[in-house]
Specification:
The structure holds two protein chains of two kinds. Chain A folds into three domains: 179 residues, no CATH class; 191 residues, no CATH class; 117 residues, no CATH class. Helices cover 74% and strands 0% of the residues of chain A. In chain A, helix 10 runs antiparallel to helix 11, helix 13 packs across helix 15 and helix 16 packs antiparallel against helix 17. About 1% of the residues of chain A have low confidence. By secondary structure, chain B is an all-alpha fold. Chain B has one domain: Non-ribosomal Peptide Synthetase Peptidyl Carrier Protein, Chain A (Orthogonal Bundle). Helix content of chain B is 60%, strand content 0%. Chain B contains four helices and no strands. The N and C termini of chain B lie close together (11 Å). Classes of the chains: A mainly alpha, B mainly alpha.
Protein backbone atom coordinates (compact mmCIF):
# COMPACT_ATOMS: atom_id res chain seq x y z
CA UNK A 1 0.00 0.00 0.00
CA UNK A 2 1.83 3.11 -1.18
CA UNK A 3 1.15 6.34 0.58
CA UNK A 4 -0.36 8.04 -2.46
CA UNK A 5 -2.64 5.13 -3.35
CA UNK A 6 -6.39 5.17 -2.99
CA UNK A 7 -6.08 2.13 -0.71
CA UNK A 8 -4.02 4.15 1.73
CA UNK A 9 -6.57 6.93 1.94
CA UNK A 10 -9.46 4.51 2.37
CA UNK A 11 -7.44 2.85 5.16
CA UNK A 12 -6.70 6.25 6.72
CA UNK A 13 -10.32 7.42 6.51
CA UNK A 14 -11.80 4.23 7.97
CA UNK A 15 -9.24 3.96 10.76
CA UNK A 16 -9.81 7.60 11.75
CA UNK A 17 -13.54 6.94 12.18
CA UNK A 18 -12.97 3.68 14.09
CA UNK A 19 -10.35 5.40 16.29
CA UNK A 20 -12.82 7.96 17.61
CA UNK A 21 -15.51 5.28 18.10
CA UNK A 22 -13.29 3.59 20.67
CA UNK A 23 -13.59 4.82 24.27
CA UNK A 24 -10.84 7.38 24.86
CA UNK A 25 -8.91 5.14 27.25
CA UNK A 26 -8.53 2.39 24.63
CA UNK A 27 -7.85 4.50 21.56
CA UNK A 28 -4.17 3.63 21.60
CA UNK A 29 -5.12 -0.04 21.30
CA UNK A 30 -6.92 0.73 18.06
CA UNK A 31 -3.73 2.42 16.80
CA UNK A 32 -1.83 -0.78 17.57
CA UNK A 33 -4.42 -2.85 15.69
CA UNK A 34 -4.25 -0.50 12.66
CA UNK A 35 -0.47 -0.59 12.71
CA UNK A 36 -0.30 -4.37 12.93
CA UNK A 37 -2.82 -4.59 10.09
CA UNK A 38 -0.76 -2.18 7.98
CA UNK A 39 2.42 -4.08 8.80
CA UNK A 40 0.82 -7.44 8.00
CA UNK A 41 -0.53 -6.23 4.66
CA UNK A 42 3.02 -5.29 3.66
CA UNK A 43 5.13 -7.99 5.23
CA UNK A 44 3.20 -10.71 7.03
CA UNK A 45 5.69 -13.36 5.86
CA UNK A 46 8.52 -11.69 7.74
CA UNK A 47 6.52 -10.37 10.72
CA UNK A 48 8.48 -12.75 12.95
CA UNK A 49 11.55 -10.54 12.71
CA UNK A 50 9.63 -7.60 14.07
CA UNK A 51 8.01 -9.55 16.90
CA UNK A 52 11.39 -10.97 17.91
CA UNK A 53 12.96 -7.51 17.74
CA UNK A 54 10.35 -5.82 19.89
CA UNK A 55 10.35 -8.75 22.35
CA UNK A 56 14.11 -8.48 22.88
CA UNK A 57 13.83 -4.74 23.40
CA UNK A 58 10.94 -5.11 25.83
CA UNK A 59 12.50 -7.89 27.90
CA UNK A 60 15.89 -6.23 28.11
CA UNK A 61 14.34 -2.86 29.02
CA UNK A 62 12.46 -4.48 31.92
CA UNK A 63 15.62 -6.24 33.05
CA UNK A 64 17.70 -3.07 32.89
CA UNK A 65 15.05 -0.80 34.38
CA UNK A 66 13.85 -3.03 37.21
CA UNK A 67 15.43 -6.40 37.76
CA UNK A 68 19.18 -6.03 37.35
CA UNK A 69 21.10 -4.28 40.08
CA UNK A 70 24.71 -4.12 38.92
CA UNK A 71 25.92 -1.79 36.20
CA UNK A 72 27.90 -4.65 34.69
CA UNK A 73 24.82 -6.82 34.22
CA UNK A 74 22.88 -3.90 32.75
CA UNK A 75 25.67 -3.20 30.32
CA UNK A 76 25.89 -6.84 29.24
CA UNK A 77 22.13 -6.94 28.67
CA UNK A 78 22.01 -3.80 26.56
CA UNK A 79 25.01 -4.91 24.49
CA UNK A 80 23.36 -8.25 23.70
CA UNK A 81 19.98 -6.67 22.87
CA UNK A 82 21.51 -3.97 20.66
CA UNK A 83 23.83 -6.43 18.93
CA UNK A 84 20.89 -8.71 18.19
CA UNK A 85 18.78 -5.95 16.66
CA UNK A 86 21.60 -4.29 14.75
CA UNK A 87 22.69 -7.69 13.40
CA UNK A 88 19.13 -8.36 12.23
CA UNK A 89 18.96 -4.98 10.48
CA UNK A 90 22.36 -5.51 8.90
CA UNK A 91 21.57 -9.05 7.80
CA UNK A 92 18.26 -8.14 6.22
CA UNK A 93 19.24 -4.83 4.61
CA UNK A 94 22.99 -4.46 4.24
CA UNK A 95 24.54 -7.92 4.08
CA UNK A 96 25.31 -7.66 0.36
CA UNK A 97 27.91 -4.99 0.93
CA UNK A 98 30.28 -7.84 1.90
CA UNK A 99 30.13 -9.98 -1.30
CA UNK A 100 29.96 -6.80 -3.40
CA UNK A 101 33.15 -5.48 -1.79
CA UNK A 102 35.02 -8.76 -2.26
CA UNK A 103 33.86 -9.06 -5.88
CA UNK A 104 34.83 -5.42 -6.47
CA UNK A 105 38.34 -5.96 -5.15
CA UNK A 106 38.59 -9.10 -7.25
CA UNK A 107 37.72 -7.11 -10.37
CA UNK A 108 40.56 -4.67 -9.65
CA UNK A 109 43.05 -7.53 -9.82
CA UNK A 110 41.21 -9.48 -12.50
CA UNK A 111 40.21 -12.27 -10.15
CA UNK A 112 36.67 -13.55 -10.35
CA UNK A 113 35.55 -14.38 -6.81
CA UNK A 114 32.01 -14.66 -8.09
CA UNK A 115 30.43 -14.41 -4.64
CA UNK A 116 26.66 -14.52 -4.89
CA UNK A 117 24.44 -11.93 -3.20
CA UNK A 118 21.67 -12.86 -0.83
CA UNK A 119 18.21 -11.44 -1.25
CA UNK A 120 16.42 -11.59 2.06
CA UNK A 121 13.08 -9.92 2.49
CA UNK A 122 13.12 -7.25 5.17
CA UNK A 123 9.95 -6.23 7.01
CA UNK A 124 8.55 -2.83 6.02
CA UNK A 125 10.12 0.03 7.91
CA UNK A 126 12.88 -2.06 9.52
CA UNK A 127 15.50 0.67 9.17
CA UNK A 128 13.08 3.10 10.82
CA UNK A 129 11.64 0.99 13.62
CA UNK A 130 15.01 -0.49 14.59
CA UNK A 131 16.48 2.94 15.31
CA UNK A 132 13.39 4.02 17.25
CA UNK A 133 13.51 0.84 19.36
CA UNK A 134 17.22 1.33 20.01
CA UNK A 135 16.57 4.87 21.24
CA UNK A 136 13.92 3.54 23.65
CA UNK A 137 16.21 0.89 25.14
CA UNK A 138 19.16 3.27 25.43
CA UNK A 139 16.94 5.89 27.14
CA UNK A 140 15.94 3.25 29.73
CA UNK A 141 19.60 2.33 30.19
CA UNK A 142 20.50 6.00 30.69
CA UNK A 143 17.59 6.27 33.18
CA UNK A 144 16.07 9.07 31.12
CA UNK A 145 12.78 7.11 31.16
CA UNK A 146 11.48 4.21 33.25
CA UNK A 147 10.93 0.89 31.47
CA UNK A 148 7.38 0.58 30.14
CA UNK A 149 5.59 -2.32 31.81
CA UNK A 150 2.99 -2.88 29.11
CA UNK A 151 4.44 -4.89 26.21
CA UNK A 152 1.79 -3.67 23.79
CA UNK A 153 2.64 -0.04 24.47
CA UNK A 154 6.26 -0.72 23.48
CA UNK A 155 4.95 -2.56 20.44
CA UNK A 156 2.80 0.40 19.34
CA UNK A 157 5.74 2.77 19.77
CA UNK A 158 7.84 0.46 17.59
CA UNK A 159 5.39 -0.15 14.77
CA UNK A 160 3.16 2.97 14.68
CA UNK A 161 2.27 2.64 11.03
CA UNK A 162 2.65 6.25 9.77
CA UNK A 163 6.34 6.08 10.78
CA UNK A 164 6.96 2.73 9.06
CA UNK A 165 6.86 4.27 5.58
CA UNK A 166 9.80 6.66 5.79
CA UNK A 167 10.09 7.92 9.33
CA UNK A 168 10.27 10.25 11.17
CA UNK A 169 12.29 8.53 13.90
CA UNK A 170 10.40 8.87 17.14
CA UNK A 171 11.50 8.90 20.78
CA UNK A 172 9.50 7.33 23.57
CA UNK A 173 9.86 10.45 25.72
CA UNK A 174 8.15 12.62 23.15
CA UNK A 175 5.54 10.07 22.00
CA UNK A 176 4.32 8.64 25.32
CA UNK A 177 1.82 11.38 26.04
CA UNK A 178 0.84 11.60 22.35
CA UNK A 179 -0.13 7.92 22.24
CA UNK A 180 -1.48 7.24 25.70
CA UNK A 181 -2.77 10.48 27.26
CA UNK A 182 -4.39 11.80 24.15
CA UNK A 183 -7.29 11.02 21.93
CA UNK A 184 -9.76 13.85 22.52
CA UNK A 185 -11.71 14.48 19.37
CA UNK A 186 -10.95 17.97 18.08
CA UNK A 187 -12.03 19.39 14.75
CA UNK A 188 -8.79 21.36 14.75
CA UNK A 189 -6.78 18.11 14.44
CA UNK A 190 -8.96 16.89 11.59
CA UNK A 191 -8.68 20.18 9.65
CA UNK A 192 -4.96 20.61 10.20
CA UNK A 193 -4.25 16.95 9.46
CA UNK A 194 -6.31 17.05 6.26
CA UNK A 195 -4.66 20.29 5.06
CA UNK A 196 -1.22 18.84 5.70
CA UNK A 197 -2.03 15.64 3.77
CA UNK A 198 -3.33 17.66 0.78
CA UNK A 199 -0.23 19.86 0.83
CA UNK A 200 2.03 16.80 0.94
CA UNK A 201 0.24 15.19 -2.00
CA UNK A 202 0.63 18.39 -3.99
CA UNK A 203 4.36 18.48 -3.30
CA UNK A 204 4.85 14.80 -4.05
CA UNK A 205 2.58 14.24 -7.03
CA UNK A 206 2.69 17.59 -8.82
CA UNK A 207 6.26 18.74 -8.23
CA UNK A 208 8.37 15.69 -7.35
CA UNK A 209 6.81 13.17 -9.72
CA UNK A 210 6.80 15.54 -12.70
CA UNK A 211 10.43 16.53 -12.11
CA UNK A 212 11.24 12.83 -11.72
CA UNK A 213 10.27 12.19 -15.36
CA UNK A 214 12.98 14.60 -16.55
CA UNK A 215 15.55 13.56 -13.94
CA UNK A 216 15.08 9.86 -14.68
CA UNK A 217 15.33 10.40 -18.44
CA UNK A 218 18.61 12.28 -18.06
CA UNK A 219 20.31 9.99 -15.57
CA UNK A 220 19.11 6.81 -17.25
CA UNK A 221 21.15 7.79 -20.29
CA UNK A 222 24.15 9.86 -19.28
CA UNK A 223 26.04 8.64 -22.36
CA UNK A 224 23.64 10.75 -24.40
CA UNK A 225 22.83 13.59 -22.02
CA UNK A 226 25.82 15.60 -20.87
CA UNK A 227 26.76 19.19 -20.03
CA UNK A 228 23.77 21.40 -19.19
CA UNK A 229 21.49 18.34 -19.03
CA UNK A 230 23.43 17.05 -16.03
CA UNK A 231 23.39 20.47 -14.36
CA UNK A 232 19.63 20.87 -14.90
CA UNK A 233 19.11 17.24 -13.95
CA UNK A 234 20.83 17.53 -10.60
CA UNK A 235 19.13 20.83 -9.69
CA UNK A 236 15.77 19.28 -10.58
CA UNK A 237 16.75 16.24 -8.51
CA UNK A 238 17.44 18.51 -5.54
CA UNK A 239 13.92 19.96 -5.82
CA UNK A 240 12.47 16.52 -6.55
CA UNK A 241 14.03 14.73 -3.58
CA UNK A 242 13.04 17.57 -1.26
CA UNK A 243 9.42 17.71 -2.44
CA UNK A 244 9.28 13.91 -2.47
CA UNK A 245 10.67 13.27 1.00
CA UNK A 246 9.22 16.32 2.75
CA UNK A 247 5.91 15.80 0.90
CA UNK A 248 5.84 12.25 2.24
CA UNK A 249 6.50 13.66 5.72
CA UNK A 250 3.63 16.14 5.28
CA UNK A 251 1.29 13.24 4.45
CA UNK A 252 2.58 11.12 7.34
CA UNK A 253 2.48 13.93 9.91
CA UNK A 254 -0.93 15.05 8.63
CA UNK A 255 -2.30 11.49 8.72
CA UNK A 256 -1.08 11.07 12.29
CA UNK A 257 -2.61 14.41 13.24
CA UNK A 258 -6.02 13.00 12.27
CA UNK A 259 -5.70 10.71 15.32
CA UNK A 260 -4.49 13.69 17.35
CA UNK A 261 -0.97 12.19 17.50
CA UNK A 262 1.69 14.81 16.89
CA UNK A 263 4.83 13.52 15.16
CA UNK A 264 8.16 15.36 15.16
CA UNK A 265 9.01 17.46 12.10
CA UNK A 266 11.67 16.11 9.76
CA UNK A 267 12.27 19.21 7.60
CA UNK A 268 12.51 22.89 8.45
CA UNK A 269 13.04 24.84 5.20
CA UNK A 270 16.49 23.34 4.45
CA UNK A 271 17.05 25.28 1.22
CA UNK A 272 17.22 28.58 3.09
CA UNK A 273 20.19 27.35 5.16
CA UNK A 274 23.22 29.62 5.29
CA UNK A 275 25.71 26.79 5.56
CA UNK A 276 25.89 23.02 5.45
CA UNK A 277 25.76 22.39 9.17
CA UNK A 278 22.55 24.42 9.28
CA UNK A 279 21.31 22.43 6.24
CA UNK A 280 21.76 19.16 8.09
CA UNK A 281 19.99 20.54 11.13
CA UNK A 282 17.01 21.24 8.86
CA UNK A 283 17.10 18.19 6.55
CA UNK A 284 16.00 14.78 7.84
CA UNK A 285 16.11 16.27 11.31
CA UNK A 286 15.15 13.18 13.28
CA UNK A 287 17.94 11.11 11.69
CA UNK A 288 20.53 13.78 12.47
CA UNK A 289 19.44 14.20 16.07
CA UNK A 290 19.29 10.42 16.53
CA UNK A 291 22.87 10.13 15.29
CA UNK A 292 24.01 12.99 17.48
CA UNK A 293 22.43 11.66 20.68
CA UNK A 294 23.04 7.93 20.27
CA UNK A 295 26.30 7.79 18.30
CA UNK A 296 28.27 11.03 18.39
CA UNK A 297 27.80 12.13 22.02
CA UNK A 298 28.37 8.67 23.56
CA UNK A 299 31.49 8.23 21.38
CA UNK A 300 32.91 11.62 22.36
CA UNK A 301 32.20 11.01 26.02
CA UNK A 302 33.76 7.54 25.99
CA UNK A 303 37.03 6.95 27.77
CA UNK A 304 38.88 6.20 24.54
CA UNK A 305 37.86 9.53 23.01
CA UNK A 306 38.64 11.42 26.20
CA UNK A 307 42.14 9.95 26.15
CA UNK A 308 42.50 10.88 22.49
CA UNK A 309 41.30 14.38 23.36
CA UNK A 310 44.04 14.81 25.97
CA UNK A 311 46.73 13.45 23.65
CA UNK A 312 45.74 15.56 20.67
CA UNK A 313 45.50 18.72 22.81
CA UNK A 314 49.06 18.08 23.96
CA UNK A 315 50.28 17.54 20.44
CA UNK A 316 48.31 20.15 18.46
CA UNK A 317 47.47 22.74 21.10
CA UNK A 318 44.13 23.43 22.75
CA UNK A 319 42.26 24.88 19.80
CA UNK A 320 43.01 22.36 17.06
CA UNK A 321 43.62 19.51 19.49
CA UNK A 322 40.08 19.43 20.82
CA UNK A 323 38.70 19.35 17.28
CA UNK A 324 40.46 16.13 16.25
CA UNK A 325 38.39 13.69 18.37
CA UNK A 326 35.26 15.53 17.22
CA UNK A 327 36.26 15.06 13.56
CA UNK A 328 36.85 11.36 14.15
CA UNK A 329 33.48 10.97 15.91
CA UNK A 330 31.60 12.72 13.11
CA UNK A 331 33.45 10.59 10.54
CA UNK A 332 32.14 7.46 12.27
CA UNK A 333 28.68 9.02 12.53
CA UNK A 334 28.56 10.02 8.84
CA UNK A 335 29.84 6.66 7.61
CA UNK A 336 27.06 4.96 9.60
CA UNK A 337 24.53 7.42 8.13
CA UNK A 338 25.98 6.66 4.67
CA UNK A 339 25.57 2.90 5.17
CA UNK A 340 22.05 3.45 6.47
CA UNK A 341 21.20 5.17 3.17
CA UNK A 342 22.26 2.20 1.10
CA UNK A 343 24.61 -0.72 1.10
CA UNK A 344 26.92 0.61 -1.59
CA UNK A 345 30.04 2.69 -1.72
CA UNK A 346 28.40 5.53 -3.58
CA UNK A 347 26.09 6.12 -0.60
CA UNK A 348 28.91 5.74 1.90
CA UNK A 349 30.78 8.41 -0.05
CA UNK A 350 27.84 10.68 -0.99
CA UNK A 351 25.86 10.50 2.24
CA UNK A 352 28.85 9.89 4.52
CA UNK A 353 32.39 10.82 3.56
CA UNK A 354 31.62 13.87 1.41
CA UNK A 355 29.44 15.59 4.05
CA UNK A 356 32.21 14.84 6.54
CA UNK A 357 34.81 16.50 4.29
CA UNK A 358 32.52 19.52 3.96
CA UNK A 359 31.95 19.83 7.71
CA UNK A 360 35.53 19.36 8.81
CA UNK A 361 36.94 21.70 6.17
CA UNK A 362 34.40 24.40 7.01
CA UNK A 363 35.34 24.03 10.69
CA UNK A 364 39.05 24.28 9.89
CA UNK A 365 38.70 27.14 7.40
CA UNK A 366 36.13 29.15 9.33
CA UNK A 367 38.60 31.67 10.69
CA UNK A 368 40.13 32.30 7.28
CA UNK A 369 36.65 32.83 5.81
CA UNK A 370 35.82 35.36 8.52
CA UNK A 371 39.08 37.23 7.80
CA UNK A 372 38.38 37.19 4.07
CA UNK A 373 34.85 38.52 4.60
CA UNK A 374 36.16 41.30 6.82
CA UNK A 375 38.80 42.19 4.26
CA UNK A 376 36.25 42.35 1.45
CA UNK A 377 33.96 44.34 3.77
CA UNK A 378 31.01 42.03 3.12
CA UNK A 379 27.91 42.81 5.12
CA UNK A 380 27.06 39.34 6.43
CA UNK A 381 23.64 40.51 7.61
CA UNK A 382 22.47 41.61 4.16
CA UNK A 383 19.79 39.76 2.21
CA UNK A 384 22.07 39.36 -0.79
CA UNK A 385 24.69 37.63 1.29
CA UNK A 386 22.03 35.28 2.65
CA UNK A 387 20.93 34.47 -0.91
CA UNK A 388 24.57 33.83 -1.85
CA UNK A 389 24.99 31.55 1.19
CA UNK A 390 21.84 29.57 0.37
CA UNK A 391 22.89 29.11 -3.26
CA UNK A 392 26.37 28.05 -2.17
CA UNK A 393 24.83 25.48 0.19
CA UNK A 394 22.59 24.19 -2.62
CA UNK A 395 25.61 23.95 -4.94
CA UNK A 396 27.57 21.88 -2.40
CA UNK A 397 24.56 19.61 -1.87
CA UNK A 398 24.15 19.17 -5.64
CA UNK A 399 27.64 17.67 -5.72
CA UNK A 400 26.53 15.23 -3.01
CA UNK A 401 23.45 14.31 -5.04
CA UNK A 402 25.49 13.85 -8.22
CA UNK A 403 27.38 11.08 -6.46
CA UNK A 404 24.10 9.57 -5.27
CA UNK A 405 22.65 9.73 -8.80
CA UNK A 406 25.61 8.07 -10.51
CA UNK A 407 25.12 4.35 -11.20
CA UNK A 408 28.14 3.51 -9.04
CA UNK A 409 30.91 5.22 -7.12
CA UNK A 410 33.48 4.63 -9.86
CA UNK A 411 31.18 6.07 -12.53
CA UNK A 412 30.40 9.23 -10.55
CA UNK A 413 33.68 10.94 -11.49
CA UNK A 414 32.97 10.30 -15.17
CA UNK A 415 29.55 11.86 -14.64
CA UNK A 416 31.12 15.00 -13.17
CA UNK A 417 33.58 15.15 -16.10
CA UNK A 418 30.60 14.90 -18.49
CA UNK A 419 29.33 18.27 -17.20
CA UNK A 420 31.99 19.90 -19.35
CA UNK A 421 30.90 18.15 -22.57
CA UNK A 422 27.89 19.02 -24.67
CA UNK A 423 26.19 17.47 -27.67
CA UNK A 424 23.61 19.96 -29.05
CA UNK A 425 22.02 17.39 -31.36
CA UNK A 426 20.25 15.67 -28.45
CA UNK A 427 18.30 18.78 -27.43
CA UNK A 428 15.54 18.40 -30.02
CA UNK A 429 14.82 14.72 -29.41
CA UNK A 430 14.87 15.38 -25.63
CA UNK A 431 12.24 18.10 -25.98
CA UNK A 432 10.03 16.10 -28.30
CA UNK A 433 10.29 12.76 -26.47
CA UNK A 434 10.66 13.59 -22.78
CA UNK A 435 8.99 16.97 -22.41
CA UNK A 436 6.35 17.01 -25.12
CA UNK A 437 5.38 13.33 -25.41
CA UNK A 438 1.98 13.16 -27.11
CA UNK A 439 0.80 16.51 -25.79
CA UNK A 440 0.25 19.83 -27.52
CA UNK A 441 2.60 22.74 -26.89
CA UNK A 442 -0.19 24.63 -25.13
CA UNK A 443 -0.90 21.77 -22.72
CA UNK A 444 2.78 21.31 -21.89
CA UNK A 445 3.35 25.02 -21.29
CA UNK A 446 0.28 25.21 -19.09
CA UNK A 447 1.34 22.16 -17.07
CA UNK A 448 4.82 23.56 -16.44
CA UNK A 449 3.41 26.97 -15.56
CA UNK A 450 1.27 25.28 -12.91
CA UNK A 451 4.27 23.31 -11.61
CA UNK A 452 6.39 26.48 -11.38
CA UNK A 453 3.60 28.34 -9.54
CA UNK A 454 3.25 25.38 -7.15
CA UNK A 455 7.01 25.43 -6.52
CA UNK A 456 6.85 29.17 -5.81
CA UNK A 457 4.03 28.48 -3.36
CA UNK A 458 6.15 25.87 -1.57
CA UNK A 459 9.10 28.29 -1.52
CA UNK A 460 6.92 31.01 0.07
CA UNK A 461 5.60 28.60 2.71
CA UNK A 462 9.18 27.49 3.47
CA UNK A 463 10.40 31.08 3.65
CA UNK A 464 7.66 31.95 6.14
CA UNK A 465 8.49 28.85 8.19
CA UNK A 466 12.18 29.78 8.08
CA UNK A 467 11.18 33.09 9.66
CA UNK A 468 9.28 31.26 12.40
CA UNK A 469 5.79 31.92 11.04
CA UNK A 470 3.34 29.17 12.06
CA UNK A 471 1.90 28.69 8.58
CA UNK A 472 -0.66 26.04 9.59
CA UNK A 473 -2.03 28.31 12.33
CA UNK A 474 -2.06 31.32 10.01
CA UNK A 475 -3.92 29.34 7.34
CA UNK A 476 -6.43 28.14 9.94
CA UNK A 477 -7.17 31.70 11.00
CA UNK A 478 -7.86 32.84 7.43
CA UNK A 479 -11.27 33.56 6.02
CA UNK A 480 -13.33 30.34 5.49
CA UNK A 481 -13.96 31.05 1.81
CA UNK A 482 -10.27 31.66 1.12
CA UNK A 483 -9.28 28.45 2.91
CA UNK A 484 -11.90 26.41 1.12
CA UNK A 485 -10.93 27.87 -2.27
CA UNK A 486 -7.23 27.22 -1.71
CA UNK A 487 -7.87 23.64 -0.61
CA UNK A 488 -10.07 22.97 -3.63
CA UNK A 489 -7.39 24.52 -5.85
CA UNK A 490 -4.68 22.30 -4.31
CA UNK A 491 -6.80 19.17 -4.70
CA UNK A 492 -7.76 20.17 -8.26
CA UNK A 493 -4.15 20.81 -9.27
CA UNK A 494 -3.08 17.47 -7.76
CA UNK A 495 -5.83 15.59 -9.58
CA UNK A 496 -5.17 17.31 -12.90
CA UNK A 497 -1.39 17.61 -12.95
CA UNK A 498 -0.26 14.96 -10.48
CA UNK A 499 1.61 12.08 -12.03
CA UNK A 500 -0.82 9.19 -11.67
CA UNK A 501 -3.65 7.68 -13.61
CA UNK A 502 -5.39 4.41 -14.41
CA UNK A 503 -2.97 1.54 -14.03
CA UNK A 504 -0.21 3.84 -12.88
CA UNK A 505 1.42 3.01 -9.58
CA UNK A 506 2.77 6.25 -8.08
CA UNK A 507 6.55 6.15 -7.87
CA UNK A 508 7.57 4.96 -4.43
CA UNK A 509 8.71 7.77 -2.26
CA UNK A 510 12.47 7.87 -2.58
CA UNK A 511 13.10 7.42 1.11
CA UNK A 512 10.65 4.53 1.40
CA UNK A 513 13.42 2.42 -0.11
CA UNK A 514 15.76 2.91 2.84
CA UNK B 1 27.99 24.57 47.57
CA UNK B 2 25.66 27.49 46.85
CA UNK B 3 23.91 28.05 43.57
CA UNK B 4 25.67 31.40 43.26
CA UNK B 5 29.08 29.78 43.57
CA UNK B 6 28.15 27.21 40.92
CA UNK B 7 27.27 30.00 38.47
CA UNK B 8 30.59 31.71 39.17
CA UNK B 9 32.48 28.49 38.53
CA UNK B 10 30.44 27.81 35.40
CA UNK B 11 31.33 31.26 34.05
CA UNK B 12 34.99 30.29 34.34
CA UNK B 13 34.41 26.97 32.53
CA UNK B 14 32.42 28.59 29.72
CA UNK B 15 34.97 31.39 29.32
CA UNK B 16 37.77 28.84 29.09
CA UNK B 17 36.02 26.42 26.70
CA UNK B 18 34.73 29.10 24.33
CA UNK B 19 37.75 31.40 24.68
CA UNK B 20 35.62 34.42 25.51
CA UNK B 21 36.12 36.39 28.73
CA UNK B 22 32.77 38.16 28.34
CA UNK B 23 30.55 35.10 28.74
CA UNK B 24 28.28 35.12 31.79
CA UNK B 25 25.74 32.35 32.03
CA UNK B 26 22.24 32.55 33.48
CA UNK B 27 19.63 29.85 34.14
CA UNK B 28 17.99 30.52 30.77
CA UNK B 29 21.22 30.51 28.76
CA UNK B 30 21.05 27.92 25.97
CA UNK B 31 23.29 26.86 23.12
CA UNK B 32 21.53 29.46 20.95
CA UNK B 33 22.91 32.28 23.11
CA UNK B 34 26.57 31.34 22.78
CA UNK B 35 27.91 31.39 19.27
CA UNK B 36 30.38 28.52 19.54
CA UNK B 37 28.20 26.25 21.67
CA UNK B 38 27.12 23.75 19.05
CA UNK B 39 26.81 19.97 18.95
CA UNK B 40 30.54 19.70 18.12
CA UNK B 41 31.50 21.62 21.28
CA UNK B 42 28.81 20.28 23.61
CA UNK B 43 30.79 17.29 24.93
CA UNK B 44 33.95 19.39 25.40
CA UNK B 45 31.88 21.72 27.55
CA UNK B 46 30.21 18.90 29.49
CA UNK B 47 33.56 17.23 30.23
CA UNK B 48 35.09 20.56 31.31
CA UNK B 49 32.15 21.06 33.71
CA UNK B 50 32.57 17.51 35.04
CA UNK B 51 36.27 18.10 35.69
CA UNK B 52 35.66 21.44 37.38
CA UNK B 53 33.12 20.03 39.85
CA UNK B 54 34.56 16.52 40.14
CA UNK B 55 31.29 14.92 39.09
CA UNK B 56 30.03 12.75 36.21
CA UNK B 57 26.87 13.37 34.22
CA UNK B 58 25.19 10.29 32.81
CA UNK B 59 24.58 10.22 29.06
CA UNK B 60 20.85 10.81 29.50
CA UNK B 61 21.58 14.07 31.32
CA UNK B 62 24.10 15.09 28.67
CA UNK B 63 21.54 14.62 25.91
CA UNK B 64 18.54 16.05 27.74
CA UNK B 65 20.16 19.19 29.18
CA UNK B 66 18.20 22.07 27.67
CA UNK B 67 19.75 25.10 29.38
CA UNK B 68 22.30 26.14 31.98
CA UNK B 69 19.61 26.12 34.69
CA UNK B 70 19.10 22.37 34.19
CA UNK B 71 22.84 21.86 34.26
CA UNK B 72 23.09 23.72 37.59
CA UNK B 73 20.21 21.71 38.96
CA UNK B 74 22.07 18.47 38.18
CA UNK B 75 25.36 19.81 39.55
CA UNK B 76 23.65 20.89 42.80
CA UNK B 77 22.09 17.47 43.27
CA UNK B 78 25.43 15.78 42.59
CA UNK B 79 27.76 17.91 44.75
CA UNK B 80 25.40 18.36 47.68
CA UNK B 81 23.63 15.01 47.38
Amino acid sequence: MTITSLNFFVFLGLTTIVYYLFPKKYRWISLLVFSLAFFSLASIEVAGYFVFGVATIYISSRLIGEKLTTQKAKKATIVIALAFNIAMLFLLKYINIIPNTINGFGELFNIDFHLGTINLIAPIGISYYTLSMISYLVDVYWTTIPAEKNFFKVMLFSCYYPCLISGPFIRYTQMKSEFFDNGDFEWDNIFKGFHRVVYGLLKKMVIADNLAIIVNAIFADTDVYSGPFIVIGVVFYALQIYCDFSGCMDIVIGASKLYGVKLPENFESPFFSKNLSEFWRRWHITLGSWGKDYIMYPLLKSEAFQKLNKKSKKKFGKKLGKKIPVFLAILILWVIIGIWHGASYKYIFAAGILPWIYLTSSELLEESFVKLRNKLKINVESKWFHIFQSLRTLFMMCIVWLFALAPSFTQSFALIADIFKFDPTVVDPFISEVIMGDHTLYAVLFKWAVIVVTMLGVAIVDYLKYNNVDVAEKFNSCNHIFRFALLIAMIGVTLMFGVYGPGFVPADFIYGGF
Amino acid sequence: MTEERIYEMLDEVFQDVFDDEDIHVEPETTANDIEDWDSLEHINLVVAVENKFGIKFNMGEVVEMKNVGEMVHTILARVNG
